[in-house]
Design brief:
about 130 residues, ApaG-like, 5-stranded antiparallel beta sheet, ApaG_sf, 4-stranded antiparallel beta sheet
Length: about 130
Amino acid sequence: MVQQITKGIKISVETNFEGTFYKNYKIQFAYGYKVTIENQSKDSVQLYAREWIILDALNNKELVSGEGVIGKKPVLKPGESHTYTSGSLLTSPFGAMYGFYSMVNLATTQKFKVAIPSFKLSAPFALN
């Protein structure tokens, strides 16, 4: 598990390898990840957007951005957390992801970014 705190918002990420399959005659490596967003600040905040950078061992880079997370824009009061699961496909058995969440402090209306720490994606059979 990797963790990082930015401006009182703690991001924790756990990953797992889901398996392989073929898509368009190419092997795909499927990874799942679980993210917990915990508000350790004194104000209520809302997550309204996210941006991910997904890298694989073949030097492919993909940028994924959009509103919310899995169709939600969670509001977190102090001490609350929001957990969700998602996944990513790579064309190699190794990779990494990182990015940020765009959030707003509901007390001050100030917008800010929260770092999503870099985490590794690796297929266990490919490790020494």
